[in-house]
Amino acid sequence: MWRASSFFFPRFSSPSYSSSTICLCKMSCKAGPVIPKFIPVETSEITSISKPDGMRFSLVSYNVLAQAYVKSALFPHSPSSCLKWKARSQATLTVLKNLGADFLCLQEVDEYDSFYMMNMENLGYSSIYVQRSGQKRDGCAIFYKRTSAELVLEQAIDYNDLINSIEDTAASSGDKDGVSIPSGNADNELKDDLCKAPGDHGDLNDPRVRLKRDCVGVMAVFKLKVPSCDPIIIANTHLYWDPELADVKLAQAKYLLSCLAQFKQLVSSQLDCTPSIIVAGDFNSVPGDQVYQYLVSGSSLPEHLPESRDDQPLPLSSVYAYTRGEPHFTNCTPGFTGTLDYILFSPTGDVKPVSFLELPESESPDVIGGLPNHYHPSDHLPIGAEFEVLQ
Fold first, then answer.
1. Where are any strands of DSSP class E within the chain?
2. Per-residue pLDDT tens over the stretch 157-181
3. Is residue 256 within 8 Å of residue 279, measured between CB atoms?
């Protein structure tokens, strides 16, 4: 468990965060949500030559913080008015509207039917949504602009299916030697307790208990409304948080890439194409840990982990690492501040990032004291990229 006193806020080496969107006037002036901007990549090898706007699309990933987890005990540092659903929902909608991304990959969506679906439809988005297993109320959603893309095929990912991939006799010993991962949000422990199902408790040495974390993802094939462009696969996921179950997070990461590899093969066969892949989400893993290294390097997993359907991972790169370096934080609370959210893409595919969504520096007034606050309706920050179609 990380302690708040052990964290520091290093400076970014990235472009400065625009303060023009932050209200710095008298206290009587009501603050509004910060709307970050896309920053062009400056590396000449990556920066695109001038092309029509139709050859580009943007994608944002954002853990919007499920309202089921918004309790004053979890966020004592946040103004109480910022935790009310009426205020948070409108602030979140304002952020999403002003970002204007072609694709929005949202995690911890728990008011999908009552709020997100209808309001996002009014903004020109269609959507797909997968709710977490068991009694959990939140899930993962992909919103896409109807003027930018057409949904071709979708498939849910249920990480509880890992239970079916192992034999009862191949129970995990619980020995996590060599799998110590210093990641995860301390506040998530309280979050998880709020929505525990009866089956969540049990012997963690039993893989049927250990692997049952009720985490999900969703992957879909989209045909961009760009001439002569192959379809793209976009996946959105939220991996388990607990650093004490690091082996479970690794197993989920392996299963994710296995599902994507099979999905890509299916799409390639049915549509006679070679789709590019973009994977977004809250991976609850910090840069450099074993989950992160596995996702971006394709390295093999420790032998004691349960096997999934395909041992060959897909080659993926992190957008921020590829363009400007990983940010120092995407999740910001007094108890934990660090990077947990990523957008991954296939570097051998037909899309390349040409800009990234700016993030605040540690001394920016909109993040001091921790999130959520009047400037950010979630404890996470949105991340994003603009991609260019190379064909």
1. 38-40, 56-63, 103-109, 125-131, 139-145, 149-158, 216-224, 232-238, 276-282, 317-318, 331-332, 337-338, 341-345, 351-357, 383-389
2. 999 999 988 744 354 444 443 333 3
3. yes
DSSP 162: G
CA separation for the pair 303, 120 (Å, rounded)? 44
In whole angstroms, give the CA distance from residue 391 to residue 274.
Answer: 12
Instruction: For residue range 107-132, list pLDDT tens digits in order.
Output: 999 999 999 999 999 999 999 999 99
Selection from 288, 292, 343, 352 nearest residue 320 by Cα: 343
Instruction: Tell me the one-letter amino acid at 54.
Output: G
Cα-flanking dihedrals φ and ψ of residue 221, to 5°? -100, 130
Which residues on adjacent β-strands are paired with residue 109? 139
Give the distance from CA 229 to its chain's centroid: 25
CA distance readout (Å), 49 to 46, 57, 228, 248 = 9, 15, 19, 43
* Backbone phi, psi, residue 386, to 5°: -105, 130
Question: At residue 15, what is the residue type?
Answer: P
Confidence check: pLDDT of 244 > 70: yes
The widest CA-to-CA distance across the chain, in whole angstroms, is 65
